[in-house]
Structure formats: C-alpha cells, structure tokens
Specification:
By secondary structure, this protein is mainly α.
Length: about 170
C-alpha cells in the first residue's frame, strides 16, 4: 500500500462513520502569508493607538474624577437600597410567620375548648384509639428452656439446678 507523498495526515478507518465519501476529506489550512500577517499586525496596533488617543482626549471634554466618584456613589447607594429591600422583605416574612403561628394557636385552642365542652360520646372514636390501654400483662413465670435436647448445653441446666456446673480438671 503506497501513501502519496503530499499526504500529511494519517487517515485511519472509522467503522462508525460508514463508508467514506470523497467529499469528507479533512480541510487543509492555508498558511497566511507574511505580508498579510504584517498588515494585520499594523492594523491592530493602529486601532489600539487610536483608542488610547481617544481615551487621552476624554478628560478634556469630561471630568473623569467626577464621573468615577458619581459612579461609585451610585453603586454604594444601589447596594444599600438592595440591603434595605432584603431586610424589609425579611421583616414581612417574619410578620407573616408570626400571624400564621397565631392562627394555628387559636385554632388549636378552639378545638380543645370544643372537646372539653362537648359530650364524651361525640368525640370518642370506636376502635383502638378510643380505648385506654392498661399496663402490659406479664406472665408470672416465663417458660424454662429445655436443655435436654442439646447435649452440649446440659451444663447450663446443671448451673440452673444449683449443682455448680461442670468440674474442670
């Protein structure tokens, strides 16, 4: 397989692209000539110098110190107004939360009054919530474990019976 001499790029097959067509060759960048690079550089430098000269003439037509001080004063005024607005919003939210809490407390107090003044049968629900439970009942003596079925645990029964357990040698 011979590679043409003017080919600069390595082309590997890519099965995900399918069959390559002749129009999908990589675009070669043309090298910009030195004369064009010199002219572009000259144009950029002249544009920068023109802007700097325009900025140097600006103080003659406009008081820049006054401009900057006014801009800074307006910025500070705006920031203080934003801060005051946020504080006022926080105050409104706090008042709204206190009002909501007051309404919840009034509703809870009224429901307690209604339960206290109403007859007992009106608010009792049938089922487990209406019944009062007593203390849990405990068996007087729990069932004793049976050790006879497992010979490896018979020494526990001897401890329970008071024999003192197995003798160690």
């Amino acid at each position: 397989m011979s590679v043409p001499r003017n080919s600069r790029y390595l082309h590997l097959p890519n099965p995900s692209l399918g069959t390559p067509d002749r129009g999908s060759r990589p675009v070669r960048r043309r090298r910009i000539s030195r004369l064009r690079q010199l002219l572009m550089g000259l144009l950029l430098v002249s544009a920068g110098i023109a802007l700097l000269l325009a900025l140097l003439r600006l103080p003659a037509k406009l008081d820049t110190v006054l401009l900057f001080s006014t801009a800074i004063a307006n910025l500070i005024k705006g920031l203080t107004q934003i801060g005051q607005g946020l504080l006022q919003l926080a105050g409104v939210l706090a008042v709204a939360l206190v009002a909501l809490l007051a309404l919840v407390l009034v509703a809870a107090g009224l429901s307690r009054w209604l339960r206290a003044l109403a007859p007992d049968s009106a608010f009792k629900e049938p089922g487990t919530r209406g019944k009062r439970r007593g203390p849990p009942t405990l068996d007087p003596e729990p069932p004793r474990p049976q050790f006879e079925s497992d010979p490896s645990l018979q020494w526990l029964q001897s401890l329970r019976d008071g024999d003192g357990g197995p003798r160690f040698r």
